[in-house]
Structures are given as C-alpha cells and as structure tokens.
Design brief:
The complex is a heterodimer. By secondary structure, chain A is an alpha/beta fold. Chain A has two domains: about 325 residues, Rossmann fold; about 190 residues, Orthogonal Bundle (Helix Hairpins). Chain A contains ten helices and 16 strands. Chain A has a six-stranded antiparallel sheet, covered by helices on one side. Chain A has a five-stranded parallel sheet with strand order 10-14-15-3-16, with helices on both faces. A three-stranded antiparallel sheet of chain A has the order 11-12-13. The longest helix of chain A has about 100 residues. Chain A is rod-shaped. The model of chain A has no long low-confidence stretch (mean pLDDT about 85). Chain B is an alpha+beta fold. Chain B has two domains: about 45 residues, no CATH class; about 40 residues. Chain B has four helices and two strands. A two-stranded antiparallel sheet of chain B has the order 1-2. In chain B, strand 1 and strand 2 form a beta hairpin. Chain B is globular. The model of chain B has no long low-confidence stretch (mean pLDDT about 80). Classes of the chains: A alpha/beta, B alpha+beta. Chains A and B meet through helix 6 of A and helix 1, strand 1 and helix 3 of B. Chain B: InterPro entries: ABC-3C_MC2 (IPR046904).
Chain lengths: ~600, ~90
C-alpha cells in the first residue's frame, strides 16, 4: 500500500450504554445479517465520518449514543482516530487508536465542511491520506476549475443499497454536474487533474489582449525600421568605438605629459625672467642715483673751489685790520688767522682731490652698471622670446593636437551612445517579440470551444477492460465486452446498456465498477479510500425477485469468491443480507449480525 | 645749533676783514654789508660763488617780503620733498 488507509474500527459511545463497535481487518470484510440490525446504519456512519453533512438516521437503538469514533491506519502504519458528535458537528483528530485516547490528549479540530482554502477540514485530511491534495477539476466548458473535495472522490469508492441499483448513470448524478463528475472519474482513472487548464478568456479580455498586440506590433515595426539603418552590428560598433576611445585616451595622456613638460619649462623660465626684470629695475634705479650723486660731487668740488678762491682773496685783500666792535669800538680778536685760512685752502684742495677720485670710482661703477644693464636686457629679451616660443607651442602645437584628440573622443563617445541605444532597442525588440508571441498564443484562434481532456469511450478503455476483467472473475454469464457510452455516460455490457438490465444485474455491475476502479489504481501514486459496497447482491435469493431480474446463485457466490481470492485490494467492506459461501470463510472477516445480536447491543 | 658757532665765526671773520658790520636796532641784531663788500664779491670768479650770489639775489627777491610764519608755511611741505630725494630705500 503506497497511499490511502484502511478502516480499523467504528465505535459509538454514549452515556450509560454499552459501546457499539465493529472492528475491521485488512482484506475482505463482509457484514451480513437480516434487515434492521444496523447494517445500513454502519454505512451511514462511514459516509458521515468521511465528511457527509447528514448524520446517520437516528434509529431508536442509536438515540442514547453521543459520539462516533472512526479509527484509521494509513500507508505508513500511523493510527488516526476521527471523533465526531452525531449532530453534524466538526471533528477532532487524534494521532492515537480509540482505546488510547484520554481526555488530556492533544487533538486537531477539523471542519466538516470542505473549503479549498482551509487545510483544517476532514476533506483535506482524507485527501492528504490518499495523496490527492491540491488536485483540480474542471467544472465547465470554459475551463473553470476548482480544487477537489473528498466528497467528489467518495462517490467512486462507496455505494449504498439504494444507489447500487440505480438506472441513472454510474458517473453523472445530475446533468448540471456532468462536467465535474466526469472529470473526477477522469482524474481517478488517469491520474491527470485539470490544474493545468486555464480558464478561457472573456470577450473583454480577448479584446484587451488584441489591443495590446496591436501596440506591440507597432512598436516592433517602428523599432525594426529604426534598426535597419545599422549596417554594422551595434555590439561590433561598440567594441570598435571602445578600442578607438582607448587609443585616443592614451594619445591624449601622452600629449598631456608633453604639455606638462613644456608648461613647467615655461614656468621655470618665467620665474627667471621675473628675477632678471627685477634686477634690471634695480639697476635702472641705481643709475638714476649715481647721476644724483655725481651732481652732488660736482657741486661739492665747485663749492670747495669757490671756498679756495674766497680764502685766497681774503688773504690777499688788505682789509682794515682794525675791525673793531661797532658798539664798543673794542678790538675784535681775530680768531681766524692767515695760517688758518691757508689751512682751509689746503684742506679744500685735498678734499677736491678726494672727491675727484670718488667721481672716478662713480664713473667706473656707472660703466659697470651700464654693462650689466645691457647684458640683462639681452637676457630678458631672450627669456621673453623663449616664453613666447613655449606659449606658442602650447597653444598651437601640443594644445592644438590635444584639442583635436578631445574632439575625436567626443565623436567616438557620441557613436558609442548611439550604439548603446541601438543595443537597448534590439533588446527591447526581442522582448516585444517574445511578448507578442505570448499574447498571440494566449488569444484563442477561433470562437470554437476549447477542447479539454475529456472522458470518452477511448480514454475509459482501461476502466472498461478492468470492469470486464472483474465481471469475468464473477463468471458473469455471456460476457462479450464492456465499453463506455459517451451518450449515456454509462457502461455497455455485452452490447447492452447497463440501465436496461434488471435490478440485480445493475447492482452487480455497479459493484464491478467500484472494484474495477480500485484495481485500476492499485499501482498508482494515489488512492480513493476503502471501497464500501452496500447490498451488491440485492436480489440474491430474494423470493420476490423473480424472472429476469434475479441473478443466479452462482454469480452471487462467485462475486464473493472473486473479491476474496482474485482481487488484491488492501481492504474492502461489503454489506449484505446473506452469508458468503463456506469455502472462503477462512479468508474473510465475516461479521455476522442476527436480530438478537446486531451492531448496536440491546440491553 | 651745530652750525651757529661756525656762522658766528664766519661773521666775525668778515667783520675783521671789514666786509660786514653789525648793527643793533629795534629789529634785533642785523648784519649789513660794508662798502668793501661789493668789490670783494665782484672779484670772486668761481662759478659756484657767482651762482651763490645769484641764488642769494633770487631768494631776497622772492622771500624778503614774507613774514617768518609765511616762510615756514612755504618751506615745510618742500622740506619733505627734499627729504624724499634722499630716501634711497630702493637701493637697499
């Protein structure tokens, strides 16, 4: 058993009443007994515990019971117990067997009502045990889907005594549910759910997408036109410009170095020039000063000469000696003697000589200054010439070259940005094209209905074959073939529609359908729950069923023999009036009820 | 003040040589050329002496009518000009 579960025990508990319990085993379980011993009640309990909304009919024997337990064992041998009241309330789920549950044990609350968005439902729990979580089925022709519920599944594993003889389709209970019910069967038979189906689009949506498509097409046309002007692949162009820019930049930096050299030379020269110019100004100033000094010297000499002359004259003149004081007429002592005057004359002569030598010196230094001035003037003009040369080289030589290179770099950069833009456009174009394709494929080609995977005679062939094999196992008389009629949504046995068969045959075919489904999915990765068949041999040995409606004793017994000996089902529960043949009693779990000793113990 | 004794000595020399005379009057002490002074000055031939006389005449003509205060007002700004001419800062 890869997935799924088996039923271990069903138990009713109430105050001041004995527990009602039925224990099941792996393999074939057959509950037999006359009417009114609780057989159908058991079936109703199962249905209720598998999420049915209706509680089992409150027959008078059951009125004192309050709770219903169902113990399950899953494929990993984990035990679960579902507990519910008998009033349609929610479930408690325990990870324990019924006997081990104490009041303090932890449990999960599971909602009885299925909801696709709630994981805490009994439906979700049972789907999980059967590995059917998240499966979806299509519910209408337009492709609308919904997640399945365990209630969808249970229809194909359990059948009660009234439904088993139905003349209606085995698959479709009502025409409004035809799509979803046939898709549940498709899921069970093929394992393919409808989760990949996307609901077909409304007219508005289609119009919307068509509009989008138009715009995209326009974009694509425009872009394609724009990009036609590119003779060279933009990426190639980009590479080319990049390498050019690199080369130009290198040239530029070389020139920059040269430029810097010249500039530093120029600055150095300028510095020297400034120093020389300042020296030149100093010389000019000095020159002016020597002139001033020279005239001083000359004036000194002439003054000294005049002094000498005056002195000589004073000595020669016979001025009156009686220079008496005009006030007191007293003699003024002549303090300045002739000798003194002569001394003055001598010293003045000496002084003149000295000054004259100074003038000589002055003239010489003046000459030197003149020479220096000449030299510096030449040097200055040389320096100025050099500076002009450097400036010219910077402006017209290196500078001009650099300007040209910068211009080229700018040109290349412009080209580069164009290439980048084109690359971006190419990318956009690809994107647009992909988007366009996506949109185109999402718009339906014509207004015809979409073809979804659907059950058909052909797709249900494996199931038909399985039913045939089961019926053959039953030793069904005159069996030639089994096929699915799309028209009837039902099976055709040996060329005859099932609903045209008698009641007994309809029931046995229904049971074959349930068993065949189980056998078909035995090796698959999912399961659909324990098959529970109520009254498959409904007309067996019933005196009121006469004539064609009645199935033979052999067929009834061979049904038992088949499920016991030839079928590999993990567990099957059959509820029947009459006992199975004695030759298989060793291999089955036979639960035998009598009027005195039914499912619910009598006090 | 430094030169006053030299001027005093010079004046005295000229007094002994009878070239000038000293007069005391309500203006204070005044020195006045004698009659010998003119021939003495005229006999001087050195250019400097001649120029000196010219300058003296020019100064007398130009400034003799001014009061002392007026002279001061005229001279003070000129003094700074003279001072500037000898300022050889640029040579340092």
């Amino acid at each position: 058993m890869k997935t799924g579960f088996i039923i271990k025990e069903l138990r009713l508990i109430g105050k001041s009443v004995e527990n009602a319990s039925v224990v099941f085993k792996r393999g074939v379980n057959i509950i037999t007994g006359p009417s009114n011993v609780g057989k159908s009640y058991i079936f109703q309990c199962f249905n209720y515990m598998f999420g049915g909304s209706k509680p089992p009919k409150p027959i008078k024997e059951s009125r004192n019971y309050d709770f219903i337990y169902l113990e399950l064992i899953d494929s990993t041998n984990t035990t679960y117990t579902l507990l519910s009241d008998l009033k349609g309330g929610n479930f408690k789920l325990y990870n324990l067997s019924i006997d081990k549950i104490k009041e303090t044990d932890e449990f999960e609350i599971l909602d009885r009502k299925h909801s696709p968005y709630n994981e805490q439902t009994v439906s979700a729990f049972l789907l999980k045990l059967n590995n059917l979580t998240g499966k979806k089925i299509r519910t209408n022709q337009k492709g609308k889907t919904r997640p399945i519920s365990y209630r969808d599944i249970v229809k194909f594993s359990m059948v009660n005594e009234s439904k088993i003889t139905t003349e209606e389709s085995l698959i479709v209970s009502h025409y409004t549910k035809a799509t979803e019910e046939s898709n549940v069967l498709k899921l069970i038979v093929t394992g393919n759910d409808d989760s990949t189906i996307i609901e077909s689009l409304s007219q508005n949506q289609i119009a919307n997408r068509k509009g989008k498509l138009e715009i995209l097409k326009e974009f694509i046309n425009d872009n394609t036109k724009d990009l036609k002007t590119f003779k060279v692949e933009p990426s190639l162009m980009l590479n080319e410009t990049n390498s050019l820019i690199e080369k130009l930049t290198e040239n530029h930096s070389n020139l920059q170095n040269k430029f810097n050299e010249i500039e530093s030379e120029r600055v150095k020269t300028l510095d020297i020039l400034h120093k020389r110019q300042s020296r030149k100004r100093v010389i000019e100033e000095l020159y002016k000063r020597t002139d001033l000094l020279k005239s001083h010297y000359y004036s000194d000499v002439s003054r000294l000469k005049s002094t000498i002359e005056t002195s000589i004259l004073l000595n020669e003149e016979n001025h009156s000696i009686n220079g008496n004081c005009p006030l007191c007429n007293g003699e003024i002592e002549e303090r300045c003697s002739i000798a003194d005057i002569n001394k003055i004359i001598d010293s003045c002569s000496k002084e003149i000589q000295k000054i004259e030598s100074l003038i000589q010196e002055l003239l010489e230094s003046e000459k030197m200054l003149k020479e220096e001035f000449k030299d510096i003037s030449i040097e200055v003009s040389d320096l100025e010439e050099n500076i002009n040369k450097y400036t010219l080289e910077i402006d017209k030589g290196v500078g001009l070259e650099m300007g040209l290179i910068i211009e080229q770099i700018n040109q290349q950069n412009e080209k580069k940005s164009i290439a980048l833009g084109a690359l971006y456009k190419f990318e956009q174009l690809e994107k647009f094209k992909a988007e366009k394709e996506k949109l185109e494929s999402s718009i339906p080609k014509s207004s015809s209905k979409e073809t979804f995977e659907h059950i058909s005679t052909r797709s249900l062939t494996p199931l038909s074959k399985a039913i045939k094999s089961v019926l053959k196992g039953y030793n069904y008389p005159n069996l030639t073939g089994v096929s699915y009629s799309e028209e009837q949504n039902d099976f055709v046995i040996s060329g005859e529609d099932r609903n045209l068969s008698g009641k007994g045959v309809r029931a046995i075919i229904y049971s074959a359908f349930i068993v065949a489904l189980q056998e078909l999915i035995l090796k698959k990765e999912y399961s659909i729950g324990v098959p529970i068949i109520d009254s498959p041999l409904v007309s067996y040995k019933k005196p009121e069923n006469i004539g064609a409606e009645r199935i033979s004793d052999d067929l009834a017994m061979d049904f038992y023999r088949y499920i016991c000996n030839q079928s590999d089902l993990e567990q099957i529960i059959v509820i029947e009036n009459e006992v199975p043949p004695t030759d298989i009693k060793e291999n089955i779990n036979h639960i035998k009820y009598t009027r005195e000793n039914g499912f619910i113990p009598t006090k | 003040m430094v030169r006053s004794s030299i001027i005093d000595k010079g004046l005295n020399l000229f007094i002994t040589k009878n070239l000038i005379e000293k007069q005391y009057n309500f203006n204070g002490i005044e020195y006045k050329a004698t009659e010998n002074a003119m021939p003495f000055l005229e006999s001087l031939e050195e250019l400097y002496s001649i120029k000196l006389q010219e300058k003296a005449n020019w100064a007398i003509n130009k400034y003799s009518k001014h009061t002392k205060q007026e002279l001061k007002n005229i001279m003070t700004p000129k003094l700074s000009e003279i001072d500037n001419e000898f300022n050889i800062e640029i040579l340092q």
